[in-house]
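Tip: read the tokens left to right.
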């Protein structure tokens, strides 16, 4: 493994734009790291795709990008990718530190008072956490909730499309049952972008569990502490975005990325 005691260059990976919730949190805390963001919009979302496809696809993505861009730490800002492939990726790309995002079930167990918990996640993520959830099933009511429609809607919201709150509320309410949770786990990074709407749809929910802080805590074990100092920024390694499919909204998307700190975009073919 590389000596990364003073790491500065981070790769953040997702199938869509949900991973930007992780980026936005990290860049507020560590603004002077160099960030590369890759989103596989050609096959967004990963949540309903086969495990074998996801693994092969992510391996090819990382392999392609490492030829074009320097990075030292990989953040899987996608719960689906994390639960399906993180151990395999750590074996294949052993020169890098690889951090993942997974639904924080244990944290939710600690916080809940009424013992009713919702986990909002993709179909594939839910398959992987069922065993863990069943371990708590005698004492806690944990409901696993998935909606690819809602994830797609959030993706459009991130891109700047105006989404009526009532549409989001309607989907959330249809996914729920008569048991009102006091704790909701965001098991997909997209849901961070509608945390306000989730709280409004479930006013009795007092705990919204998000994995961003854990990712940040893990990351600080490896990054150079000087990265918080403005003068230490590597101006020759500007933040960059990679994507896999061009569409008619790429100009608007390019402007959006510039506003949040990414000055370059590049399409890659896998």
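Filled-in amino acids:
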């Amino acid at each position: 493994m590389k000596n990364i005691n003073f790491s500065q260059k981070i790769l953040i990976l997702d199938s869509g734009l949900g991973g930007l919730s992780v980026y936005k949190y990290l860049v507020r805390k560590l603004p002077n790291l160099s960030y590369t963001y890759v989103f596989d919009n050609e096959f967004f979302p990963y949540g309903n795709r086969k495990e074998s496809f996801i693994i092969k696809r992510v391996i090819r993505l990382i392999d392609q990008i490492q030829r074009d861009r320097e990075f030292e730490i990989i953040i899987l800002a996608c719960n689906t990718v994390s639960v399906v492939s993180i151990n395999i990726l750590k074996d294949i790309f052993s020169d890098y530190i690889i951090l993942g995002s997974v639904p924080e079930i244990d944290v939710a167990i600690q916080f809940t008072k009424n013992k009713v918990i919702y986990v909002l996640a993709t179909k594939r993520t839910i398959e992987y956490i069922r065993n863990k959830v069943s371990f708590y099933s005698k004492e806690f009511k944990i409901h696993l909730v998935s909606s690819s429609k809602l994830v797609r809607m959030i993706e459009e919201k991130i891109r700047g499309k105006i989404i009526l709150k009532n549409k989001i509320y309607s989907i959330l309410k249809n996914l729920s049952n008569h048991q009102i949770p006091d704790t909701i786990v965001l098991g997909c990074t997209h849901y961070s972008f509608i945390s306000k709407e989730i709280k409004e749809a479930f006013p009795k929910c007092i705990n919204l569990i998000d994995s961003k802080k854990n990712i940040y805590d893990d990351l600080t074990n490896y990054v150079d502490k000087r990265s918080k100092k403005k003068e230490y920024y590597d101006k020759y390694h500007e933040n960059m975005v990679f994507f896999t499919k061009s569409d008619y909204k790429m100009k608007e998307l390019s402007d959006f990325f510039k506003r949040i700190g990414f000055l370059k975009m590049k399409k890659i073919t896998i």
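The chain has two domains: 9-101+213-267, 105-210. Residues 1-6, 229-233 have pLDDT under 50 and may be disordered.
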